[in-house]
Structure formats: C-alpha cells, structure tokens
Amino acid sequence: MPAYLYLGIAIVSEVIATSAMRASDGFTKLIPSLVVIVGYVISFYFLSLTLKVLPVGIAYAIWSGTGIVLISGAAWLLFGQKLDAAALIGIGLIIAGVIVINAFSQSSAH
C-alpha cells in the first residue's frame, strides 16, 4: 500500500505548490516561489515512486482528479474563489470517477 501513500504525498504537495503559485504573484514573491518549486519537486518525485507500482494512466487519473478537487477547495478557502452549481457538479463527477477507478477498475490491480 505504499504506492497510495506516495500518491497521496504527491497530490498534497502538488496542491500546496499550485496554491503557492497563486500567492507568488507571477514569481515576484520569493517565499511562495520557493514553495512552488519545492512542492512540485516533491510531487513529481513521489509520483515517480507511485509509477513503479501503479499503471501510469491510473496513477495520473487519481493524481489529477484528486488534485483538481483539492485545489478547487483550497482556492475557495484561501482565495475566495466562487464555486457555482456547475463547478460543484463537475467536482462531484470527478470524485465519482476516482472512486470508480479505485473500486472497479482491474487496471489498478497490482
């Protein structure tokens, strides 16, 4: 199960890096810019460890789908981004897709 732990670390660090990118103001603020760089290095490193076990399509689907959901929540909390009904429905569909992949896809078996 360490592949899913690594994938979780990759997802969380990517969300932190993406949030910091917004705060970096076009890479004009040093600390948020450093958080972006370090966050993406950590994210891609742990994603690469995940890919030793999980198929790339499955890992990327989970990574990107979960990342979209989490970054949408972070943008709502941190930056006041509005999430209308269409956005919430879309996020719900993404969550459903990640659940279907994990629960029913034979492609994710390792």
Description:
There is one protein chain. The chain has four helices and no strands. It has one domain (2-108). The chain has 110 residues and is mostly helical. Helix 1 (2-23) packs antiparallel against helix 2 (30-50).
Which secondary-structure class do the elements indicate?
A: mainly alpha
- Global outline: flat
Total strand count, please?
Answer: 0
What is the helix/strand order?
Answer: HHHH
Low-confidence stretches: none
Biggest sheet descriptor: none
On the 0 to 100 scale, the average pLDDT is 92
Q: Kindly give the count of domains.
A: 1
Radius of gyration: 15 Å
Distance between the termini: 10 Å
How much strand? under 5%
Please give the count of helices: 4
Helix content: over 70%
Blueprint of the fold:
Blueprint: H1 2-23, H2 30-50, H3 56-79, H4 85-104
Helix pairs in contact: 1-2, 1-3, 3-4
Give me some keywords for this one.
110 residues; mainly alpha; 4 helices
Task: State the gist of this model.
By secondary structure, the chain is an all-alpha fold. The chain contains four helices and no strands. It is flat.
